[in-house]
UniProtKB/TrEMBL annotation:
Classification via InterPro entries: 6-hairpin_glycosidase_sf, 6hp_glycosidase-like_sf, GH116_catalytic, GH116_N, Non-lysos_glucosylceramidase
Name of protein: Uncharacterized protein, contains GBA2_N and DUF608 domains
GO biological process: carbohydrate metabolic process
Organism placement in taxonomy: Bacteria, Pseudomonadati, Bacteroidota, Bacteroidia, Bacteroidales
Ranges of residues in domain Glycosyl-hydrolase family 116 catalytic region: 516-674
Pfam families: DUF608, Glyco_hydr_116N
GO molecular function terms attached to this record: beta-glucosidase activity
SUPFAM superfamilies in the record: Six-hairpin glycosidases (SSF48208)
Organism field: Bacteroides faecichinchillae
PANTHER family cross-referenced by the UniProt entry: BILE ACID BETA-GLUCOSIDASE-RELATED, NON-LYSOSOMAL GLUCOSYLCERAMIDASE
Occurrences of domain Glycosyl-hydrolase family 116 N-terminal (ranges): 64-396
Amino acid sequence: MNKRTFVSLMFCFVGAVASYGQNENENDYGVNEANTKFSFQNGILGGDTDYDYFSLKDHEDVSGVPLGGIGVGNINLAPSGQFTRIGINNIHTPIKRSESSFFSLWMRKGNEKKAVRLVRDTKKQYGMEGVKHTQYKGLFPTVQLSYADNNLSVSPVIRAYSGLVPHNVKDSSLPVVWFEVDLFSQENMEAALAFSWEDFIGLFNDPNSLRGFDNGQLLSEGRASLNNGENWALREKAETFVEPYKQGTLTGLMQCVADSLQPRKLTFQNYVNKVIVAVEGEKNVSYLPACGKTSDAWSQFIANGEFAPQNSKTLLTKQGQSSSASVLAVKTTLKAGEKKTIRFMLAWYAPELHIDEAAAPIGSYWPCGADYNKYYHNYFKDIESLVGYVAANRQRIIQQTLEWQKPILESTLPDWYKFKLINSGYVIYTNMVLTKGGDVMVNEGAMGGFGGTMDQRLSAHPFYQKFFTQLDRSEMDIFADSMDPEGYILHFIGHYYVGMGSEGGRVPTEKGWMLDNASGWIIQLVKDYEQTGDMQYLKKHLAGVKRAMKFLYSRIPAGSTIPIGPTTYDDFTHPPLYSYYAGVWLTTLKAYEAIGKSIGDAKMVEQAQKQFVVSQKEAIDKLWNGRFFAYGCEPDGSKRLDNVLFTGQLAGQFLSRYCGWGDVYPMDIVKASIISQCKISLSKTADYYANKVWDINLGRGIDNRGSQCWPFYLESYTALTGMQAGFYADAMDIMKHIQLVHLRKGWTWTQNLWNPSDVTYMTAPVTWFSTDVLAGAGINVLQKELRLAPVITDDNLVSVPLYYPNFWGVVTADPQTKSLKLKITKKYGKDKISFTKIISEPAGLPTTEKRQIEIKEFVVDEGKVLDLSQYWDQIVDNRLESPILPNADKHDFRYVMK
């Protein structure tokens, strides 16, 4: 199924749900239809597994680490040295690559001279060859790119970075990239470094006309297709100029538009009108202001390492013509054994938009919700003030950015995991929309521009919530504010090419519900409250929670105790009583019970507990077949699909245990389900990249073509659930191979949900659940409760970082000395956080066997250490299972009778 078909299916699915049960004797819930469509994509999965993750050699370059900021656009510096996915204007459909943006190195010793582009390719451009080899260390949002084995007399290393400072939105939403280039020579040499940057100003998606745009709701009357900006053409290239730029110690060039940019339809794109390329603290600087793709103007640089003096404003690109580029060059002398660092800055700026509501045509902007401006507009009125701030604060910003990476890199976790965890946060640059007013929406990825996707948010949110709680809550608040009068949480809260809601406004995506939208919102809300202790946040949304619960209860059919309706798994028809949502419903009830306990509402607690008992019994009675939960059945339990195995069947189990609300299913059932998934589908699939829907009779997956695996859900609802149940080795293996599938093709920073391809899908940060799972950790601030039960697999010391909204810590466990400590490495805010009890829920044991240990009050403060060594035997008691996946056929199924 291609993406366009997928988008269309999204909108027709809600209507299709109404037909459930109308033709029960004929309905096989899509199984036969999917069987006729199934086609495996050969050649995508399987391959190399041995990577040096911190020095990827000659790696594929479809994507690279995104550099830029939250909500301001980004660029990728790919492992080849190529700039790819240039999204300074549009983060949703970035320009795939630039041949005119690159670094170039000139070297001369005596009469011997050479100039090369620092790009790994076989082309000759501008009179210069590329290089044959590169080594790439990409850890979002930082890059180190080196060039060994190229017979270069000067060894260059490019280090690039942007700011991502936890809980500091200002310094994390700056449209700036720094490039520090180290030059080293064993001999006395002359060298020059040039940075060429293509003119991207004015290149943005825009409809040909406003015909049909009427500010109507997107989920009706075909408006979604009309507003699909992926199908809009790029605007004709605007006329631009380039002029010398000087500010403080910065010297360079400024590209700028000739006339103000006037899109027909305002969107969340960045209407960049100025770009600065500058070098810091250098004197021997020369320019090539405008260089076309066929220009021979580089001949001066090739000959002498510099360009002819030019100090006037120059035409850069004529309107409607192919973009030119501007080049900045620095010439220097290197002594033998000396390292010289040259620091460049790339910055861009979009002016604040002021909408004349009286004159603006209908459909040219969304008039009912959030603004279209950038968060940096709160602080910087122009590019000069922005650049001045960044130059003055550069060192602090990068130091604070590296702070959150350091505990991961210093941990005892394997390199592939460190690489995966750090880099999975990249979508905060590539998918998050952040307005001047602080409103947030996360683009789903592909989908025509729809964003603020609550069902996916349930798995996507942990990175934002841990590091930028303010931004996470903004999106949650918009979902609450736009709740339908019926009481359901919407699927979307906005659209990249239309607009989004704001508290007190409207969203262009009204209507369109799924059960797990309401459940996901409630679960995230309660988890946030427990991790922050923010009672006001909980009370603010209490009425909304009750409305959402009332809606969910209204979806329970006669003769059942579990709501029926559409869910996130909407690309393949599922039965009404669905194994995925049955578990999520149980977790929703656990969250509702937690609210009742927090506010002292005994009736709420009693209602949740009673409903949980009967709903759990129904889920097991009707769906458990002895080895796993069947895909689903009719509300009365008939037509159970025992021949269909589904990887989302334990979603509720994962979420509830992760949040500290206990198991929703007996542990023996959970373990049997994991074993069945490993034996039946995962072990039969290359890279364990399993179809989410697997037909046992056919012995293969039956998902629609193009959507065979939802890897991010496989990671949370199978792998991490398995880790909770004691299948540590299998869980890590699944996570590693999900990464390998993307890594081999150069898709580390463009991971897709449906199939490996070039899409930045929002749910990649799901990996940020895993630090807590590895440590068996969680917190309830108001209950002064710390959950801790680190997974220990051998006699080696274990070090695992923990991140929560108000503090960070590192858990160290040494089995040889039975030393167990938690060191607080960071504390945010002035509110007191303390713990008086430790809850241990070891992996593999049911939470009914949890251990509670009363301790002397430990106050969380930076640098303090909580020593729990005396409780080692109570806390560290994992019941780990032997690995299933490597030899699945040699393991027996486990049968658990009801």
